[in-house]
Amino acid sequence: MTRPDTTTKHATDVSAMFDEVSPKYDLLNDVLSVGNSRLWRIATTRAIAPRKGMRILDLAAGTGTSSAALAAHGAHVTAADFSEGMLAEGRRRNAGNDLIEFVWADATQLPFDDDSFDAATISYGLRNVSEPKQALAEMARVVKPGGRVVIAEFSRPSSEAVNWAYTKYNRHVLPRVAGIINRDAAEAYKYLNESIEAWPAQEELASWLREAGLERVAYRNLTLGIVALHRGFVPRSKPAAPATPAAAQPAATKPAAAKPAATKPASAKKPAAPKKSAAKPGSAAGEAAESETGKKPATKTSAQKPAATKKPAAAKKPAAKKPAAAKKTADAKKPTAKKPAAKKPAADAATEATATPTTKSETNKRGHE
Q1: Regions in the chain scoring below 50 on pLDDT
Q2: Contacts of 127 (CB under 8 A, 6+ apart)
């Protein structure tokens, strides 16, 4: 087996290496991780939070073990890998599972449209990509706004003692055990150990996720930092930020346009009030209202309008003359009407009524002459 160069990581060399180890790849992971790979898979699945109806991209899916865990929750999973040997093994193991689709893909140039998936994940494969930052940017591109990107990868243990023991195990124990299980896998796991030692620590990988445009980036260590689980979200688009104020402006101006229409009825009601009071100038209610208000302009207008209103009242001459006479006396006695003494007996009002018409008739005759 040709061991890929960890500095170049040519896709053809890496894919050829995985083609050869694909039949016993999952068994090697369980043995070499001492069963921890299953626990890491459960933690990764929870971080992705798959649900029924979701579309999830599982990049570097290999034989589809992680894809099957996601599909068990009802999600439709696209298992992508650049190793044809891995894809063939995955199709064989997951035959009949309609929720998993195996697709060949290059992580740096994904053959998917923008916003095609609800989430994307890659487990222990990002460090095998020649341009990991480009792969992260591609994952962010194909995930819908608000969707998440989850990375499970070998990392740097937080404790120096654990890191020393972990490094010794990877260099000396891991390749030998892998060679016993699969003779061709010895060289492959030497490369895997070298790629783990050259891989950046947790904080640097988190900065790569931010450079890819992801937000709310966070990570947590699994098994004392041997594996780190990184997560980031694709920023949500701003759908109607500019459109909402523009749409609200016409709605805000509608009440302003309705205000003039509201004032018109109010202005029409004001002239209607004098008409009602002028319609019955000789009534007792009209005289009481005039005496209470004491406004001279109102009495003058009422004194001018009785000439027009006397015609319909001509049928009842006795009733029409008395209110007219009483009204004239009210007009004449208005300066004294404000005082309490203005309420005189009916006899005085009658005498005043007889004096006033004669004086006014004389002036009218002189005016005609």
Answers
A1: 238-369
A2: 153, 154, 195, 196, 198, 199
